[in-house]
Amino acid sequence: MMPLRALLPRLVACLLLALLAGCSSGGDDGGGRTEAPAWAEGMSVTEVSELPAEARRTLQLIDGGGPFPYERDGSVFGNFEGLLPRHERGYYREYTVPTPGSDDRGARRIVTGRNGETYYTDDHYASFTAVPR
């Protein structure tokens, strides 16, 4: 058996290797999140798989062209809050994400841009997260 003094450098080397392996940069910010796409620079990002099931279903309806459960789905989103990149009126469309137990449309929406951008809000436009697809 080796004395502790002789094992210490090997132990330190193993710990450093384990630490470095856990800190490798695989294209995210270290927290498992993808970097924001160019169209959403500076925004937080949410992967489709991290969205609520109802939001994923709404994305499927958007991709399939409907039918949508709410009359206002697909209407122009004005971006009056100014939280999304500035574009001409009509650039963005909004879609309801159903909220279980809500008597009305609730606060959750998906907003899409003409060039394929996708954003999600769960607080009725007070904040958005980019959803790369």
Automatic annotation (TrEMBL):
Signal peptide range in chain numbering: 1-26
Source taxonomy: Bacteria, Bacillati, Actinomycetota, Actinomycetes, Catenulisporales
Cytoplasm keyword on record: no
Swiss-Prot/TrEMBL keywords: Hydrolase, Nuclease, Signal
Species the sequence originates in: Actinospica acidiphila
GO molecular function: hydrolase activity; RNA binding; RNA endonuclease activity
SUPFAM superfamilies: Microbial ribonucleases
Protein name per Swiss-Prot or TrEMBL: Ribonuclease N
TM annotation in the entry: none
InterPro entries: N1-like, Ribonuclease/ribotoxin
